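User: Hi! I'm a student and our assignment asks us to look at how structure tokens line up with a sequence. Could you show me two examples?

Assistant: Happy to help. In each example below, the sequence comes first and the structure tokens follow. Example one:
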Amino acid sequence: MSCWLRCWALFGCVAGAQAASGYLAAVTEAVTRAEAGQWDTASQAFGQASLLDPDDPLAYCGQGLTLLAARQVDTAAACFRRADETDRYDALAFCGLGLCYFEVGNLSSAESYFKRAAALDALLAPPAFYRGVMALCRGQVDEAGELFGRAAELGTDQVLLDHLTALRLLASGRWQAATEALRQLKPHVATSVPGLPAPLPLKLEGEPGKQVVLLVPERDPLSDRVAPRTAVEVVAPQPVRVGPLTVETPLPGTTVSGRVTIRVSLMQARSYKYVTILVDNKTKGITNREPYYVVWDTTSGADGPHEIVVRATGGIELEGRLTVNVQNRPQTTVTQPYDPAAYRTAARRIAALLQHASPPLSVERLLLTAYQQQDPEQALDLMERLYAKDPTRTELVDPLLALYRTMGLSYPVDRLPEPVRGVAGAGRVALTFDDGPRPEYTEPILKLLRQHKARGTFLVTGRMSEKYPELVRAIAADGHEIGSHTYNHLHLDGLTRDEIAYEMIKTKVVLDDIVGVSSRLMRPPGGHYNPKVREVLADLGYFPVFWTVNCASFSRLSAAEASAAISGKTHDGGILLLHNGADNTLSILPALLETLSRRGLRFVALSDLLRAPTESALMARPEFGPLPPAELVPYAGVE
């Protein structure tokens, strides 16, 4: 071999080693995104990784996984077939193909692929798990138990297996035992192990107490004729374009060496004075005439990524950016394109993601069927938690609302109270605190209320309550009332019916888990409210509370002036709107508490203020208590 050919061979080997090293890092990053549930960005990352090593299957298997998460089974199968063609790690590709056939109900093909995967790699969990599910569907309960035991040894999430054990009891005719097992499992508790976001597609056929059959519903047959390369084809790098500015060379993401020409084209060049070209924030050239280009000598810099910035200056400045990889210096030749241990770890993580992370749909149906008649409260709790976990499950909204109505928890929409003040006659006012909780505000507010022996009502957001559950518990421990200010603090009048329901249900589940109970009181963020919001709240058994005085309206005054002005507007039965956040609440609250106390006003929970002193306060869920009196002033716009 000539000296030139030997050098070229060495360079090709080195380039392959560097590409493989970057490839494995790219695959690992994509897997991390998939484990975090970022399926779209993970799919893109796997696609980009496949460019770095088109002959390795991991990126194709990863992309197939993300397509399964998006329910694009045919396209996912094409990715797994492309992975199989590389002939490096067939077991993972066979596992993916088996799952594709399982998803469409072709169990014979699925079984074949899962057996081939297990024969090649006995340490993969998904083949044992899905073969156990298929045995369960065939009524082979003992075989299913053995396979589930094997899947557990290989790392399948135990919570998921426990649900399937309950279904084994059901398939063997032990209906009551299955129902009791599911009660003990508390199936609304989501598993913490990453995996496919959709529940196992199992279907129950039969009636409670009679013979029940488990099935995998058949869908459109999976075509073997899908062009395997089409699905994983990634668009080749394109020139960077920003309006009339185009960086023609080099292309983004490419590897360059030696003297590199950075060439720019500019339409309507007369509208621009000059073009500046920078590499790593250092100017390489400024030119005011075509052709716009500079020659960059890469040999003086370090190998690795470098940023190129091109600016066209004129009436409007345009800027294009791209990154290229410089590779000038030969590296030590390696015999393998990847680290075996790191490769196996990435493959195992992809395999773990090829299992469903949610219990089977049939478990939900079983519970809802069993509970709806004998234990509707359990059924309601399950449905609320399913919807809170996955807002795309909008099919749960109508059954949820029907269950609220059946249990007498809804309000007639034409009688829904919308109070802006409470019941006068007993020298009472209500302090209400929106937003939060936040440590820097909640703790000082609680301290002030404690000093004045005042009760308040905290209308908290679900998101912040999840972040600071200890503050929610502190509010409850001090005897204050807790209501809902929605989960994301969005303007409800701009949301759909299902989105409004999600905001309320998600917050209820969060508060129930933190303090065990939540109030039927809520306040729409910003007071944004319309008939659609009113209807959903009535169906869910909530009613909106507004305010008599908005204390934030006096934020331009000093604390003393604001307290005096608010006190002058506050009368018996008044509802004061304050905030558990960054406004004037903390500055005015001490003086306000002093002033109103001297006037003989008592600070009570909002639910107390909405009832006459001789009546019981509104109860928390699920014993909602009676409706507020009809004479409460209806909402008619507030300041």
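Example two works the same way, sequence first and then tokens:
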Amino acid sequence: MDSSSALPLYNILHAMSIRKFFIFIFFILPKGNIFGQNPLPIPSLINGPEYNLTLQNGILEFFPGMPTSTMGANGDILGPTLLLKAGETVTMNVQNNLGEPSTIHWHGMHVPAANDGGPHTVIESGTTWSPKFEVLDKAGTYWYHPHLHMKTAEQVTKGLAGFIIIQDNEESALALPRTYGVDDIPLVIQSRAFDLNKQFIATTALDNTILVNGAIDPFVEVPAQVIRLRILNGSTERVYRIGLEDDHPFSLIGTDGGLLQSPVELTRLNLAPGERIEILIDLAGLENSSLFLKSYASELPSGTYGAVNPSIMPMGSIQGYSSNVLNGQDFEILKLDIIQANNNAVLQIPMTLVDDQPLVTSQANITRSLTFQAAQMNMNTMLNGPFVINGSSFNLQTINYSIPIDNVEIWELTNMTAIAHPFHIHDVQFYILDINGVPPPEYLAGRKDVVLVPPGNGIVRFITQFSDFSDPDVPYMYHCHMLSHEDAGMMGQFLVTGGVTSIQREQNYQVQLFPNPATDHLTVFLPNNDHNQWTLTNALGQVLEQPSFQLIDNNTVQINLRGLHSGTYWLEITTERGHPLTKKCFQVLSNELIK
């Protein structure tokens, strides 16, 4: 600033009181510098028992004049909240209009393996997947997101995710806030990175922008009464330390798999990627004031993504991490503008919630040990990966465990890397037995499907039961929920065996391909295998030689893919008389000819 521009400001300062000066600064500063400028979007709520989701591409302007390419369900970004009722049979019609394959996984829900939406259940572009299942879960907050192998981080980062709220009779009998979007508010918190053109970057430590329900710098009006926040960490890698401004207390009432036995009053709570919490905040008497929901990242321990130091070791770094303004710094997530209480407001936090009895170690049939390691052990890979479980990277063809149905099992997770990993398992909810040999605190005593495993030989043990569903062919997943780690191979899969197949394959079921993507073979389930004709074409439409195949049973054929290059292929199946049955797309993952 030169002297000619400094003099007028000097005169202004002398002519104004300090209070008036700050009012002056408020009006001349760009409004983008003021937190809480954008109203919080509330996802639409849809009821069943039939739900229609259209996966689509979109465009949003997070920054004026700079459109960002996004993905969403029934809209440009994120998706509607699905309201389900326990005991109801629901149908999920998922239409894929993305122009590329995807999947949709019902995260946290206990459903048959073929309906779980893992990487084997690919929804090709232009097709609809319609799983049908009974809701067997307890009331709680769950979510849905893509789970396509090696593409999960990209599709979730672009915005493809949504909430699932399940209600049951136990929860409905409690005096809890449940007016959706008013005193019962879903919040998905996501840290995102943008390139110079304001396009999302999926795998980078430059995730320095916080989105809440897809908005930057959001605010929401809430009544001066007890409110309920359903909070999901939908970030690719970041851990949050959730708290309210001025250490205002909140009561934790639910974790991943449903309500706790009683509320736990807290001022801080760590939330790792994939985890959900339900909290109650008493705002009575605070009308016409504001309160910030924050992340106190300065308090996160070393070895946690989001802390000052993401490693517990003195060496090693993540490129771009130290320059990220969110790492190790407290920051605001959401501004709560408190207005007058509603009629029939909830004004008290319940003393007790639901009866939930954990499994105990004496019930366990087996203990399984899983060890997290870097694929190559050195100071850089111990922090950056790629990471493996029990020495192996994920392979679509490899079943890591076959688990007898109804088994009660203890899983012991040992993290030999320099960074904490949020471990997620499909199919079941579990109870944490101990973390580094210490029983879990009250706030981790409920039903969980994600647990943050500490670094540096940290050990977590949990107990669970694999009930209701078995399938000899379609596996469930377990993996790190840092999506970049998952995509890079920190994942395994298991079959639940020995019971009645979870999906009864009747004569009118649709043709199914497994696995997809594939490597050396492709298994095809058919409604009727009598006299079927096969045509295999590549991405250029060229017809290839008749593939060799082996009949496994009356409805199952295994096709030999050896000799095919990696790429996209089409399998067209017709009857002996030329009547079309189906035309299915699949991917071959091999990078060179398989011999």
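Here is something you could point out in your write-up. The CA atoms of residues 202 and 395 lie 22 Å apart.
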